[in-house]
Every structure is written in structure tokens, then in C-alpha cells.
Design brief:
By secondary structure, the protein is of the alpha+beta class. It contains 13 helices and five strands. The strands form two sheets. The protein has a three-stranded antiparallel sheet with strand order 3-5-4. It has a two-stranded antiparallel ribbon with strand order 1-2.
Length: about 230
Amino acid sequence: YVQERFPGLQLSDALIEKIQGFTGGQPLFISELFNLWENDGKILPKISASGLLAWDLSGKDDQLELQFLHSISEVVEARLHILPEELQKMLLYASVDGQEFSAQTLASISGKDIEQIYLILKQVEKSYRFIDELGPVELSTGYWMDYYKFHHPFFQEFIYNQQLSKGYRRLLHARLAEFFKDIYQAIPAKAGLIAKHSREACRYQDAMDNALKADRHELSQAKWAEAGRW
């Protein structure tokens, strides 16, 4: 893994064995540990003598050993703290939308211009590897949504459950419910989405009204089980 990801990086056999034993070989744990070291400047890119991209330590092996943490959660939290505050906020907003989210929802929640959102998301994707771009989707109303997803479901779950207070979650769900009501008002299939965010925002009348709309929509599609759940 190290040789494939970081060509030219020389780590001692003892450190490699320690990483293997410490992480138990769990792929997400290993990759996040190296992401932390890269983001924190412990592992740096350089140009080799042949003109190719290579990697090197900024110090000695023991610098890496000092940053061993006890769980994936601790590593992800340490990585989040490295992010600039603006990028941290964007991941908080995205976690409320879900495992998949759109640039348009983030613009609505944050109040930022959509062009700023695209630039921020590109930085989060390329420099910090928290998200991946999926691509644009055109709604039946002619409105375009540009979708992204968290690189791993654990990221979204950790940020949503560990980095947001209950009150802040309720506030952001309320903003999302209003945004989705505006863009999906002519799309019955999205009533369930509005109901979900309204419920999390403690707007129970809106949640009930949209749950009933979702029920009627599923019945119209002969999806009895889904209608029953709503």
C-alpha cells in the first residue's frame, strides 16, 4: 500500500510492522492514518532525480510514531481539525444532507455563492480526500443539482453524530426542509425527503403533511410496502 501510494517513500521495517499491528490491517484505518500524516506535513511530495513525483518524510520515523491514535474515530477527528474552518463547516452542512449531498443544498444552508461552494468542495476532495464528486443531475423542473458523496459512509456518520450538537442539527434540518420544499414542490416523489428533514427539525405538522403525500405517491406507484411505512 505504501509503495503504491507514496512512490519513493522509505519507511523502516519496524515502523511498517508497527502500523500493521496497530491498525490490524483495517484498510480505512491505514488510509486515514496516512492521510493524517500527509495533511499534517509529516509526509511530503518531492521531485525525484529523474523528474518524477516521489515522497519523503519531513523528519524521522519517530515523528510518525508520535501520531499513532487509538481508533479510526480519533484519526478522522484529528484530520478534521487540520482543515480550515470554512472547510470544516462545509462538511458539517454536508453531513446533514446525507451520505450523498449537492452543492446547491450547501449553498442554501451556508448562504455562500454557488461558485464559492464548487471551489471549496474541490479543495475538500483533492487536498483532503473526504468526498468524491458524482456529477450533475437535471430535475424534471429543469433545475440542476451537482452531487457529491462522502468518500466513506463512516465520515458522514462520524461528523453528523459527533461534531454537531442536537440544536445545530435541528436548525440545519429546518433550512434543508425549506430548500427542498422550494425546489421539489412539483415532484411528489420527493415528499418523503421533505418529511424526513421536517421531522428532524421538529416541525411535526410539516413532517406529517409530507409523509401523507409520500404515502399517496407510493400508492400511486403500486408500492404498497413503502406506502405502508409512510
